[in-house]
Amino acid sequence: MTAPATVRRLVWLLFLSTSLGSAGYIAGNTISAIVGDSLSHTTGLAGLPGAIYMLGGARASYPASRFMEYTGRRLGLSLGFVLGIVGSLLAGAAVLTA
Questions:
Q1: Measured between alpha carbons, how far is residue 27 from residues 1, 10, 23 in Å?
Q2: pTM
Q3: Which of the residues 13, 26, 41, 48 has an alpha carbon 20 to 30 A from that of 19?
């Protein structure tokens, strides 16, 4: 059985990581609408980046799960985080140069 101090520490860690992840997700969706509006110059297309993000995540979930089934979660999540960082840097560069 795990010690109460360890359980308490893990619950706080889970709470903090979930809170920060949710805040980042909300901020990303908000910013994607603002960027979509400013890049397209059409308010009707403001939600397009967020929609593409959602559809891309849904489309990639099955191949990602199959990949992680064979290689393990650690490698799959690490690769996903690296690809997320690269994508964020490319998106940031695109916004700054537009």
A1: 39, 26, 6
A2: 0.67
A3: 48
Task: State the sign of the Cα–Cα–Cα–Cα dihedral 46, 27, 62, 76.
Answer: positive
User: How far is Cα of residue 39 from the mean position of the Cα atoms in its chain?
Assistant: 21
Nearest to residue 57, comparing CAs of 24, 84, 39, 27?
A: 84
Instruction: Say how far apart CA 37 and CA 42 lie, in whole Å.
Output: 6
Tally of residues, the chain: 98
**Token pair for residue 43?**
């308010």
DSSP letter assigned to residue 41: S
CA 18 to chain CA mean position, Å: 12
